[in-house]
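Worked example 3 (structure in, sequence out).
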């Protein structure tokens, strides 16, 4: 049966999951795209609540085969009309396949630090979902232990963040922290070197030395890292740039900084 009505309770529930408040309440989020859904089915089937298919997708050869697979494995799934899929999708041309995913259960920062992690990434009020997702993807790629994010940071479980992160959020702990000052104080007590990134005036990234146990703070796109974070940090670092350039995108900066630090520390 194809769900065509906007008043259908399943559709209304799925659409509500595009809202941060509903995601936090239910601890579920939406994942979009054939490749990402397929990867989740293969690696994290226990986290899948249900699969949503677009009517158009089910008529394609790939869609017909996928539908057979879902029926064989008894995965709960629903078919939405193309217009309903488009209403939920974060892309202009939806692939016609989504999944409702249960958020992985992670401990708070205190409990997590008992595992003695090494490299951590802290996001301070980064507001663009695509940047949040891209940084989580970079953090996973370089082998970071976790990503922490403050209040004011875009929800890492939004459709755009999850898509930009290419499902990295299922592989890497992403943990909310209430206040940057408290997090820095706790990390210092645990022996972490705190690195804050600044566009100008910091130590040259490629000349600086780093601890094997460190936390890198990345700040808001417009304002950068807060003054209190700078004051509490052990080191401020800057990526050298051409005089013609004013700044770098925060996700691009994250990739350059994290790869350089981990390469220099011979952790990659």
């Amino acid at each position: 049966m194809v769900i065509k009505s906007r008043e259908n309770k399943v559709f209304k529930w799925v659409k509500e999951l595009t809202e941060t408040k509903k995601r936090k309440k239910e601890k579920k989020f939406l994942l979009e795209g054939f490749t990402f859904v397929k990867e989740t089915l293969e690696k994290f089937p226990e986290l899948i609540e249900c699969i949503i298919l677009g009517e158009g997708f089910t008529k394609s050869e790939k869609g017909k085969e996928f539908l057979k697979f879902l029926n064989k494995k008894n995965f709960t799934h629903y078919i939405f009309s193309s217009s309903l899929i488009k209403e939920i999708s974060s892309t202009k041309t939806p692939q016609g396949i989504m999944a409702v995913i249960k958020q992985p259960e992670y401990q708070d920062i205190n409990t997590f630090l008992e595992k003695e992690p090494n490299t951590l990434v802290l996001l301070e009020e980064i507001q663009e979902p695509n940047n949040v997702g891209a940084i989580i993807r970079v953090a996973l790629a370089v082998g970071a232990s976790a990503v922490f994010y403050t209040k004011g940071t875009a929800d890492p479980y939004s459709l755009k963040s999850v898509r930009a992160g290419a499902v990295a959020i299922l592989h890497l702990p992403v943990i909310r922290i209430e206040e940057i000052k408290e997090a820095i104080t706790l990390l210092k007590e645990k022996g972490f070197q705190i690195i804050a990134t600044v566009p100008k005036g910091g130590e040259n990234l490629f000349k600086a030395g780093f601890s094997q146990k460190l936390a890198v703070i990345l700040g808001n796109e417009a304002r950068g890292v807060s003054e209190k974070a700078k004051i509490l940090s052990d080191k401020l670092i800057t990526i050298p740039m051409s005089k013609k350039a004013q700044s770098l995108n925060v996700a691009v900066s994250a990739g350059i900084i994290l790869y350089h630090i981990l390469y220099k520390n011979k952790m990659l």
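Notes: The mean pLDDT is 94. DSSP finds twelve helices and twelve strands in the chain.
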